[in-house]
Amino acid sequence: MKHLFIFSILFLAGTCLAQKPLALGKYLVRFTDKENNPYCVCRPWEFLSARALARREKSGIPVLEEDLPVNPFFLDSLRAQNVQIHHALRWLNAATLISDSLGIKRVRQLPFVRSVEYLGRHIVPKTPDRPQKKHRVLDQSPKAGDGGEPLGYAGLQQSLLGMPLLYYAGVRGNGIWVAVMDGGFNNVDTMPFFDSIALQGRLYPGWDFVDHDGGIYESAQHGTAVLSVMAANLPGYFVGDAPEATYFLLKTEDTAGEFPVEESNWIAGAEWADSMGVDVINASLGYTSFSDTTLNHKYAQLDGRSTLGAQGARIATQKGMIICNSAGNSGDEAWKYIGVPADAAGIIAVGAIRPDGKRADFSSFGPTADGRIKPDLVAPGEQVVVAGDVGTELGLSNGTSLASPMLAGAFAALWSDFPELSAQEIENAVFESADQYQTPNNERGYGLPNFGLAWMRLHGFWFDNGANRSHQEAFFAGKNKLQLLFFEPLSEPIIRVELLDLQGSYLEQPAIRWKGAFLKRLEIQPKRGMTPGVYRIRLIGQHNSQTHFCIWWD
User: Fold this and answer.
1) Across the chain, what does the average pLDDT equal?
2) Domain 461-553 belongs to what architecture?
3) Is 23-121 in CATH node 3.30.365.10?
């Protein structure tokens, strides 16, 4: 009887141990090939939107095998092993899984599985928001450089990038799609800063790539601040640098912990954005150290190829999108280098500057492990005005997390005026406008770009030293076509435009076209037979008030 009692205890103990669930982890599974895939590059419309295909066509980018979705047979076979698929990653022909060790053992034995990599433990999703980051409340407006009143508290930071010129010309991101990848966007759906993009159908809660639901307006205020420097639109109070763009909010950052699986979230978000036809991506995210320190990246891995995040990001940059990623905030720490995936070639790694244009102390350094210049560009990232937690509260905040969206929004605004150009052509113009373009370094990269200058060069404007300087509103003349850029010079509407020769003799009343908002662009159709040279433009108001400009037609 005594032996039977002991046996019963041992049996019950064994049963309890057997029922204890094994710990769940997240794993990256890479597949052998994409053969026998039901999708085909000959039918790209089955997995890429018409807008995505048009963007690629504009840049001469073909649809490749890497664009094909993962073979559905592979995914179904994985599910049959009683594992959960977290993401299917078409660019890497891979999937991230949630599984215990027994499930992964079965997965390793599948004939189409090339490799399995551990990405960290699985954290059960939590719905409550994390404590909010506290910004220093803004008690007075920063000195607005050239920003002027319409931009309000954003005047100084926008003037550092030369953005007021674009705003006054009415160039504000219209028609450009921007994806914002972050950890959450608390209160974006209720704050008045974002009313215009919401009411005009330009704000989309894309997807939660962490919890796999539509819960975007949760988990973090970080994404709210990031979005505000691009999309906010309260004229006279606070205006972002691309308030007329269309925004897709993607939750890719897991605020419950830091694990390499978040790099797969980044890739999944970028793939989604690409397939939707997004033009610009901002990711104020970076990865070097993790909750499980055995998974930390080493500097030698920052070569743009070794890490999961860099592998996906490198491919993302080849799809005709402009991608800005924060460089990192470790510049004043023992680890001073940029993070992943900012190390990837083609990603615009964005460092931070102070209001005086110098590198912010916290802004991370390059180079990459293989010797490439990083960061690529810099933007305002210290004492940046951002939307607060609720209502119309504003605050001051720091980080390359803010420099990156400042730059991404500026790219969106600039591109909106040249939709016929490719991402590479827009990037080239911006890089050429940067203050260290000829002498880049690993503190500020190619420097601080001037988007106003890039915009003027793309339009063919040039400084007109021969203009009548008594009218300071007129400061540029056109090249390669008759056009004039100026602030409204008269106190009354212009009703007539006349074309004169250099001596002031009347030639004709030309056909004209007006563009712009505060800043006017006057395009003139010259008469047939006109030769290049110097001409005068006379603008006449309703009561015959006049102003003259010299213009060189080359």
Assistant:
1) 86
2) Sandwich (2.60)
3) no
